[in-house]
Specification:
Elements (H helix, E strand, L loop, with lengths): L2 H26 L16 H4 L2 H20 L13 H31 L3 E3 L2 E3 L16 H4 L6 H36 L10
Antiparallel strand pairs: 1-2
């Protein structure tokens, strides 16, 4: 696969994954789909860090767009400079996206391990913080573990797991694009003149 086609495939994948992270983080702000519990005391710090919106979202969306553009016709046309300018830009954007994806992965993993803030025994707090994530294995008791918000653990675990999975893929794809774009800068785009873009 030539560097241009690879860049386009990676870019489209990164755009999709960044949108997944943004939507998941926005949904974490409204537990159980309601704004009743959307305040600083009822949501975990990891939700307020907005790692899905900024880290795995916007910081990955930019390299995704840059990679798609790098896979298109270059500033001098196909076959001339081989799209080296856009490939070089894609190297730097992908490196920045890699940092954003790592931020999202670390914040989401921490949020998953600590568990949600919820009401238990008439007290709001991180009731699963000291379990080191073992609460994840007891899914049959999740509704009994938290009284409010309803289905808090399921909501929290599902969305943070989605962000962990998406950011893991983003880390891999941004790394692939850094290497792919660096090859594109050094060797040019393998597409010939007249090849459809």
């Amino acid at each position: 696969m030539c560097t241009g086609k690879c860049a386009r495939f990676v870019g489209l994948s990164l755009i999709t994954l960044s949108l997944v992270c943004i939507v998941a983080n926005v949904l974490l702000l409204v537990p159980n789909g309601k704004t009743t519990w959307t305040n600083i005391d009822n949501l975990s710090v990891e939700v307020w860090l907005m790692s899905g919106i900024f880290g795995g979202g916007l910081l990955v969306l930019c390299p995704g767009i840059a990679a798609v553009r790098a896979g298109g016709k270059g500033c001098c046309g196909a076959g001339c400079c081989g799209n080296r300018c856009r490939m070089l830009r894609s190297v730097f954007c992908s490196a920045l996206g890699l940092l954003g994806a790592i931020y999202c992965l670390s914040a989401s993993g921490t949020g998953l391990r600590k568990g949600p803030i919820c009401l238990k025994d008439n007290a709001w707090g991180y009731h699963f913080k000291d379990t080191e994530g073992s609460y994840l294995l007891n899914s049959t008791e999740w509704d009994a573990m938290c009284q409010q918000p309803p289905h808090a653990i399921l909501w929290h675990v599902t969305l943070f797991s989605l962000m962990v999975a998406a950011s893991c893929l983003e880390v891999v794809l941004c790394g692939v694009q850094v290497v792919n774009a660096a090859i594109g800068v050094l060797c040019g785009d393998c597409r010939k003149k007249g090849t459809p873009q």
